[in-house]
């Protein structure tokens, strides 16, 4: 139940918040709610002062229109309203004639005294403009009008009739508002000049003093410049209007106008008072609802954030949509945010066609846009929150997959010949494709080109496919290399562990064989057995030591002390060590070593171990009575030691296989040896930054050791 209660409360609070915004927008009628609520009542409001100013203007308009349309206080339709001149002849137009002509064109006044043009017509506007053109020289409602030129004043009779009808409509509106039925607005205007007096009022027998005692009033006279009033603002044009309507030009005047604030009559002032009171109450209600709903919305939203993704047991769970990558959620949110606006415009256009004009369309359009965006973006946002709580926001995202792709490619590029070239080969095409996709997307948005959209989609698909394929190639390469490294490490660890495990019993065997030799055993047969044991134990000891040495060399677990060493001297020294052994095989040594020292950077002990293995192999496997060529060559940046001899056994093997562990040139294995010599030599040479190369041409065996020369500092 709680699973649906909090979302329902949040939905209700948002709807309530929107309702309060509607109240605060419409209740003040164009004013902001804060300024509207600061006004204590309608009588102290700016709307009331504006109504007073409008009524004052209506008074003086009535003074003008009464003299225009009335005779002795009654409407006179025979008043001459306008005159025209045609071919030197003057023609007068009465109010009655212009009303009838206006009626013939379909003009009439409705109940609000507004001019309507949809009545039955016997004269069309086209006929009026074509056949009834006149030159107006006089209009009673514009007494100061004078034609500026012979061409001035030309108009159709229908336009003149409509113009006169407009003034008549205004006259009727003022009569209806202040005279024909009771009005809460009262006025008194009196002009005097000696014994002559003219006055205007809308209430019989009312005086200026009586009006000044009403709830709200405004008054003045010609004897004082002071305007007496209890209004917040007084019409600034009151005195100019009074003086302009003075029929005596230099007479005295008294003006008084006011509003009975008890509102005994049902007029516009009472209606405005009641409307203002209702709107004020609605504004207070809207403000209360706004504060309440805002607090409720914020509170329910926070609770929703903490509660989303929790089941009845308060355990974190994800919905089916939450398992999608983060980028899809963000893309849907941005897409909806963009599409909501045209959908709102389309909805309101359809609504106007269905129900007609809509009040405040921009306000309701903005409100509808907010609703469309909020109620879809909120679930998407909560989905991101649930992913964050479950710690899958990044782990399930495309960003992580892309980063993993790049990381895999970077790791795989370590095994490439040129890492920089590998990076460029991966980064540059992707940046180029990304730029082209952005450009085509820009063209689609601004040029409305579907071709650019199609091209960007195809380019995106191709780029993702290539990157995906590259990722799997890189991952496969990295996995293969890791597997190979792991296998080599396991092999090395196995050899090391087995060698150490063999050392202990082997040491005991050698010790007991030595003890047996010290016993005075006369039996020759037993002595031969002891000699075999000693020989085989010694060979096994050498093999074990070679295994440990090979394991250390291949894993790099050897401490090297690199110093400048005379390459020439160490070669000759090693040759001297093996001179006797080589002579027993009747091998003729032919050396070609330059005089003088050739300095290389190496570990003397380990380099001797490498040379020892090479000379030992030569003594074992070289053809009996053949020649061995030993040369040392100094080049620009390195020195090359070369040993060449003819193999006694056929070399049906590749140079690469010879450097593998437990591989011997004697396939029949009739000679003694562990098959680790060349492997150890190659590993040690590599550790000292040197290179060992083996070449085989038939039975010709050639091995080379290349070391960089020591760079001498010139003083």
From TrEMBL:
Residues 497-711 form the Histidine kinase domain. Its main location: membrane. This is histidine kinase. Its EC number is 2.7.13.3. It is found in: Cell membrane. It catalyses: ATP + protein L-histidine = ADP + protein N-phospho-L-histidine. CDD domains: HisKA (cd00082). One of its GO terms (molecular function) is ATP binding. It is an enzyme of class 2 (transferase). Pfam families: HATPase_c, HisKA.
């Amino acid at each position: 139940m709680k699973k649906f209660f909090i979302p329902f409360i949040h939905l209700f609070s948002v709807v309530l918040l929107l309702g309060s915004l509607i109240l605060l927008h419409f209740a003040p009628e164009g004013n902001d709610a804060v300024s509207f609520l600061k006004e204590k009542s309608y009588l102290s409001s700016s709307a009331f002062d504006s109504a007073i100013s409008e009524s004052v203007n209506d008074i003086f308009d009535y003074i003008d229109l009464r003299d225009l349309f009335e005779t002795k206080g009654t409407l006179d339709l025979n008043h001459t309203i306008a005159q025209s001149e045609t071919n030197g002849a003057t023609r007068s137009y009465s109010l009655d004639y212009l009303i009838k002509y206006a009626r013939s064109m379909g003009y009439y006044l409705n109940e609000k005294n507004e001019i309507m043009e949809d009545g039955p017509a016997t004269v069309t506007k086209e006929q009026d403009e074509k056949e009834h053109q006149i030159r107006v020289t006089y209009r009673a409602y514009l007494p100061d009008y004078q034609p500026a030129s012979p061409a001035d004043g030309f108009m159709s009779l229908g336009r003149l009739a409509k113009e006169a009808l407009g003034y008549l409509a205004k006259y009727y509106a003022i009569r209806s508002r202040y005279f024909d039925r009771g009005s809460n607005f009262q006025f008194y205007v009196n002009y005097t000049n000696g014994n002559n007096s003219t006055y205007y009022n809308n209430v019989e027998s009312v005086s200026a003093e009586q009006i000044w005692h009403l709830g709200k009033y405004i008054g003045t006279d010609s004897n004082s410049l002071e305007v007496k009033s209890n209004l917040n603002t007084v019409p600034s044009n009151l005195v100019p209007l009074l003086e302009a309507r003075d029929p005596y030009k230099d007479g005295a005047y008294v003006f008084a106008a006011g509003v009975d604030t008890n509102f005994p009559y049902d007029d516009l002032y009472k209606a405005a008072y009641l409307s203002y009171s209702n709107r004020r109450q609605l504004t207070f209600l809207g403000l209360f609802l706004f504060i309440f709903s805002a607090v409720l919305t914020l509170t329910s939203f926070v609770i929703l954030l903490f509660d989303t993704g929790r089941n009845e047991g308060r355990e974190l769970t994800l919905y089916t949509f939450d398992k999608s990558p983060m980028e899809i959620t963000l893309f849907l949110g941005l897409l909806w945010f963009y599409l909501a606006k045209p959908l709102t415009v389309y909805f309101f256009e359809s609504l106007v066609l269905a129900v007609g004009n809509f009040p405040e369309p921009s306000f309701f359009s903005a409100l509808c846009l907010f609703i469309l965006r909020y109620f879809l973006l909120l679930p998407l946002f909560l989905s991101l929150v649930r992913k964050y709580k479950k710690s899958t926001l990044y782990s399930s995202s495309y960003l992580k997959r892309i980063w993993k792709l790049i990381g895999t490619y970077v790791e795989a590029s370590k095994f490439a010949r040129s890492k920089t070239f590998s990076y460029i080969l991966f980064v540059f095409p992707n940046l180029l494709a990304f730029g082209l996709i952005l450009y085509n997307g820009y063209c689609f948005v601004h040029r409305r080109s579907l071709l650019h959209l199609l091209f960007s989609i195809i380019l995106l698909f191709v780029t993702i496919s290539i990157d995906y394929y590259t990722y799997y190639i890189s991952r496969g390469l990295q996995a293969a290399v890791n597997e190979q490294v792991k296998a080599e490490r396991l092999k090395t660890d196995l050899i090391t562990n087995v060698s150490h495990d063999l050392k202990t019993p082997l040491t005991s065997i050698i010790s007991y064989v030595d003890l047996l030799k010290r016993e005075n055993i006369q039996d020759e047969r037993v002595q031969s057995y002891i000699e075999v044991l000693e020989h085989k134990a010694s060979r096994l000891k050498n093999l074990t030591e070679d295994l440990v040495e090979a394991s250390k060399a291949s894993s790099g677990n050897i401490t090297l002390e690199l110093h400048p060493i005379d390459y020439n001297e160490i070669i000759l020294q090693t040759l001297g060590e093996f001179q006797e052994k080589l002579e027993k095989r009747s091998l003729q040594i032919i050396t070609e070593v330059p005089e003088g020292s050739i300095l290389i950077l190496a570990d003397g002990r380990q380099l001797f171990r490498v040379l020892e293995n090479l000379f030992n192999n030569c003594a074992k496997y070289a053809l009996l009575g053949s020649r061995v060529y030993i040369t040392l060559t100094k080049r620009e940046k390195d020195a090359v030691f070369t040993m060449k001899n003819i193999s006694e056994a056929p070399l049906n093997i590749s140079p690469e296989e010879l450097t593998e562990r437990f591989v011997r040139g004697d396939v029949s294995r009739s000679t003694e040896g562990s098959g680790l010599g060349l492997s150890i030599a190659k590993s040690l040479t590599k550790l000292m930054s040197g290179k060992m190369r083996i070449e085989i041409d038939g039975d010709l065996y050639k091995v080379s050791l290349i070391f960089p020369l020591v760079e001498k500092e010139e003083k």
